[in-house]
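F.,

This is the one I mentioned.
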């Protein structure tokens, strides 16, 4: 019986682990916050106290951490504590769900193959609610033998698992393009709402009209609801788009490809971050606009 482990029980990872368990899998987990891992296992499954322990116990390891640096630490350790790659059995599969530079993902596949391990490049999209319901999207690339082991678990976690290539990199490239659009759409939505506020338009009325008109976007509808509620709880933080749009621009710069809208949106998120909103919801990018009075929380 193929065993699955999941590393990182954050907003996305906790929902993905729940989806795996709902599909009937016994889920092994690791999180640096041991109390979070223990709480998840109350309804079944096993919490490991080290990455090496989880790696040794699982045929497929799913990593849901923030970035490439954290993925490196998960796999190869931090100099004092070993990572999971050192203990994973030959032929095991590592599924990487972070948003990273595609070139780094390509190189990681080669590094893992040299250790006798298989790899699926599998960034994710859809947000915490879709992760919890098993309805998110996975943009994947990997060799057939890696898919053969990992596919049942991918299908348990996501409603749509796109196979974009038989080697790493394609999944990450598509995710980066998705993040280009997501970041630009959030920045544009914030700019539009800010202009409405500046001009004295009732924000609730503006939201109602735009969400029923051609100018609507998924990001306007989702993120401007946060602004109307004055709720900047970080489901996806400002600094996520500082990172992701930075990767977008790095990828394009390598091939000398111009991205004027992405560059502007990146600067907007950078401004919001340095103004003190780094850890707030990414809709807080609206706070960079001067001379507007933002909606206040009800009550």
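My design for it:
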């Amino acid at each position: 019986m193929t065993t699955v482990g999941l590393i990182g029980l954050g907003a996305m990872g906790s929902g993905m682990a729940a989806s795996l368990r709902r599909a009937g899998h016994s889920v092994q987990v690791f999180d640096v916050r041991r109390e979070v891992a223990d709480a998840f296992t109350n309804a079944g499954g096993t919490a490991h106290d080290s990455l090496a322990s989880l790696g040794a116990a699982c045929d497929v390891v799913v990593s849901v951490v923030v970035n490439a640096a954290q993925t490196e630490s998960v796999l190869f350790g931090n100099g004092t504590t070993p990572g999971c790659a050192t203990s994973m059995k030959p032929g095991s599969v590592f599924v990487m769900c972070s948003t990273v530079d595609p070139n780094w993902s390509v190189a990681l596949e080669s590094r893992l193959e040299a250790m006798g391990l298989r790899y699926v490049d599998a960034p994710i999209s859809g947000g915490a609610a879709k992760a919890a319901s098993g309805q998110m999207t996975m943009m994947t690339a990997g060799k057939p033998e890696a898919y053969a082991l990992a596919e049942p678990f991918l299908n348990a976690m996501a409603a749509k698992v796109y196979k974009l290539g038989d080697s790493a990199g394609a999944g990450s490239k598509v995710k980066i393009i998705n993040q280009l659009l997501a970041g630009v759409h959030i920045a544009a939505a914030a700019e539009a709402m800010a202009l409405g506020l500046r001009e004295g338009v009732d924000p609730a009325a503006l939201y109602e009209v735009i969400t029923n008109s051609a100018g609507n976007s998924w990001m306007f509808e989702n993120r401007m609801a946060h602004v109307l509620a004055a709720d900047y709880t970080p489901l996806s933080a400002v600094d996520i788009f500082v990172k992701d749009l930075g990767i977008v621009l790095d990828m394009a710069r390598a091939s000398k490809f111009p991205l004027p809208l992405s560059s502007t949106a990146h600067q907007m998120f950078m401004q919001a971050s340095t103004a003190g909103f780094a850890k707030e919801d990414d809709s807080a990018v609206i706070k960079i606009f001067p001379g507007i009075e933002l909606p206040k929380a009800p009550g």
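The radius of gyration is 20 Å.

Talk soon.
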